[in-house]
Amino acid sequence: MRVAEIIADFDTVLTQAYRPASASAYRADLHLWQEFLAEQGIDHIESVQAEHLRHFIRRERARGVAIRSLRRRFAALRALYRHLQRQHPQLPDPSRYLRLPKLEQHFPDWLTVDQAQQLLDGPTSSDGGPAQPATAQTHFAMTRDRAMMELLYSSALRVSELVAIDLDHLDLAGSWLRVFGKGGKERMVPVGQVALTALRTYLPARAAVAAAEVKALFLNQRGGRLSVRSVQRIVDGWGRDRLGQALHPHTLRHSAASHLLQSSGDLRAVQDFLGHAGIATTAIYTHLDHQHLAAVYDSAHPRAHRAPPRQNPKEDR
To answer: Residues with catalytic annotation?
Structure first.
């Protein structure tokens, strides 16, 4: 069986069973693999051995491909061979002998409590820029941005979750928000009093620009749902204006989680708060907490940097 024909047949599976972005990435990975096999003089799938797959992964790594991308190439190969096994059980599966490359661990960016307060307690301005005259348009933008920033931090939302909020997802009286996370998974998260106050200030301004059929909580100036890219731009503007640094919406989520964990020490509650499927994902915030402790120790403990006293040579005898 020719490799090119197998990949072409698998393309139908990719289209039907995978999200468009994942399918596109897998196609690219498999075509890279096909080109590699052609360089090795291999045209038929029966000739592919586990060592060929390992060589492909090693070569990609030598080219500077990131570990995360290598893991995706690995996943594409495993998916292809699973499909082959269903169609042709007699064919060997060399991919089962591959070891998944270990993912490099990157701790998320986060703000200190003081930085979060500096960010959110500063004067309100549109898009994080200098203060503007309070026209109806700038009043709408200022109240929306304030409510949005407070809610991102208060409820540790993903930016995709924020822009998906509809009016009926918000319970102002009960201080709760219904959120739809990854995979459409629903969870209820609390909303802090400062965020509730900001939302109550924003809602009349929202009503003045909203189109009748629009259910979205956060709107653009034309009355439509605010986009992810617009939120990213606004958050970055606030970060540069108030903190002198670039800022991503996910940094506010990481910061809220870290601050909650530092205060409560309850990892399971933080897991529910963030909507993580497994506790292992949430556990990375314990590393942040340990980093915070180490930084405090290094800056405050009187013997953190002091060299140990030199021993008397006679005492060593």
So the answer is: 158, 182, 250, 253, 276, 285
